[in-house]
Design goal:
The structure is a single chain. With 136 residues, the chain is mainly β. The protein has one domain: Lipocalin (Beta Barrel), CATH 2.40.128. 15% of the residues lie in helices and 39% in strands. It has two helices and nine strands; from the N terminus they run αβαββββββββ. An eight-stranded antiparallel beta barrel has the order 2-3-4-5-6-7-8-9. A hairpin with a 5-residue loop joins β5 and β6. The longest helix has 12 residues.
């Protein structure tokens, strides 16, 4: 079994800052829902690294143009893949290909105070579930 390399120090610092910030607790009045074209440009063919607020895990998704998404939980080393689709209203849905997966579902991305956060609702006041730390 290979060792799990920790995220780079810059990502670790960003994750700690995101967990400590108020963006997870309440939305600002400037939160704006991101639409399909923005999300395609931002995510497709790229890696996105985000911090999941509930668990504190740092996770990387690689969203491919062929409709597949691969993930690696950088905190515990779990890996997997699934199929994604993106609706016109910005709803990003993933069906994970793992028998034990409980994370299937759809999320929405918002721009807020120079950050990108993810929620389970189109309501701009919904609590953020995660924050994007890096996109490459």
């Amino acid at each position: 079994m290979s060792s799990i390399a920790p995220p780079p120090p810059a990502l670790q610092a960003a994750a700690k800052e995101a967990l400590a910030s108020s963006v997870q607790k309440s939305a600002s009045s400037e939160r704006r829902l991101l639409r399909k074209s923005e999300l395609e440009q931002m995510f497709v063919g790229k890696n996105q690294t985000f911090i999941h607020f509930r668990t504190g895990s740092t996770i990387k998704w690689y969203v491919r143009s062929d409709g597949n998404v691969f993930y690696k939980n950088q905190t515990n080393g779990n890996v997997g893949y699934g199929a994604w689709k993106l609706d016109d209203d910005g709803r990003f849905c993933v069906q994970w290909h793992a028998a034990r997966s409980t994370n299937d579902g759809c999320v929405y991305y918002f721009s807020e105070s120079g950050k990108v956060v993810r929620t389970g609702s189109t309501n701009p006041r919904a609590n953020a579930q995660a924050q994007i730390l890096d996109i490459q």
